[in-house]
Amino acid sequence: MKRRIYSWFMIIIMVCSCNRNKPLDYALQVAGENETELKTVLNHFKKNPQKLKATKFLIENMPYHFSREAYFMSTKKEKYRPDISQFNGEKAIKMHCDFLFKLGYRIKEQKVDDILTLDSRFLIDNIELAFTVWQKPWAKNVSFNDFCKYILPYRAQCEEVSHLRREIMERFVPILDSAKVKTPLEACFVLNEHLKGIMKYGHTGLPLYPTIDETYRSGISQCEGLCNLGTFIMRACGIPVTVEQTTWTKMDLGHSWCVVLDNGKFYSFGPGEDQPDTHARSFSEVRHRRPAKVYRSRFDPDFSIMDKKDDGYVTTLKSPLIYDVTNEYLDKTTSIKVYVDKNNRKKGKSNQVYLCTYNYYEWCPIAIGHRKDTVCYFENVVGDNIFMVADSPDGNKLRNITAPFYTDKDGNIRKFIPQKEHKQTFTLNKRKKKLDQEHTLHFWDTEKERFIPLEYASSTDTTQTYDQIPTNALLWFTIPERIVNQRIFFIENDSIKSY
Fold this sequence. Notes:
It comes from Parabacteroides segnis. This is Transglutaminase domain-containing protein. This protein is of the alpha+beta class. It folds into three domains: 296 residues, no CATH class; 107 residues, Immunoglobulin-like (Sandwich), CATH 2.60.40; 80 residues. The chain contains 13 helices and 26 strands. Helix 2 packs across helix 4 and helix 3 packs parallel to helix 7. The longest helix is centred in the first third of the chain and has 16 residues.
């Protein structure tokens, strides 16, 4: 479902990019019946040049935003979304959802376009409230341009639009007033410390994309839901904030967090968790938390990043609503230069290439680079990671064009091409809490382009020994259960180097 929604999104982006010379005219044109509502907002602020300019900023960028609405659908086509604040914890919600499935309910998702649905009352209130908090001591030095990008917007990502801005402003602004904060950074510290007591990371048990309202009421969500709510709260209080994201390279899945803008510099923080003075440092100091690439969200698209020779492959990395900010973090970045494997050089090719990491059972793209002849180039990547390069000549799927390889902090490359004629012996420890399950060691076969299982030589209750491991191989030790963080690794100097 995610891929289908984003496929539509990319088409709209490409169509609209051709009309960016007259963005307001185009926005009104695609609004359809909602054009009247948008013109009402423009007319409302026509005597206030600054608010009118802010209104135009919102409307011009609305065609590129939508809500990802998720709900249960009954056999009678009735929509239903459980109110998680009415249940006693994750288990109770999960039991309720399991019961719904037994009754024949199914999960449905739909895209709700901002430009087609947001009415004049909502937009006028949002603009007025944003301008009200912009006059606060901690926000008054925020430039108009930054105000439009990081305080004015009514959404962070693709969550359902919330009407709680006034309620949140009235609840939290007095906390900042009493603290007598003078800068966005100071305001963020004070408010985020308060949020620690009312929101926390956790699984709700609801298999639906979180909304701001339910996260606000329950105080529980995972990182994306916390970021959406945290951004919404901060902006409602006049603090310029947006969301950043990464795909992990030493863990499975990915992560989102927020950044606050103060005097031209962004400071990262975890909403209701890590403060701006410790967040980025915790990334650098904890090995498995070091992001190889970081992308920042924006409300106004930057079409200049779009490649005119795009291969057609659909990925969020191509969205003009995110941009690369890896260089703003503490770990040194490097350039990667890697040669296409000889057996792939004569095949059809694309000059657009993808840097992939092994994440939750598949190679996932985390960066886009370019290919020149037989060499692939990627910029601003944090090393000490294992990658693979792929391209997409048909625009539909990725095709590996290099063996997996290790990149050190300086960009030096070591490819994992298994030497099948040379074997090594190694004993691996089974997972402590999964000792009763079958464990299997695999190596990445560059010819078959997949992980191949190996037979163990001997086994105990806690270990498994293999004597047919090809040297210079990328390895993967797994159990049948699909769980997170069954990480790839290689053997060096009789020790495991895990990634």
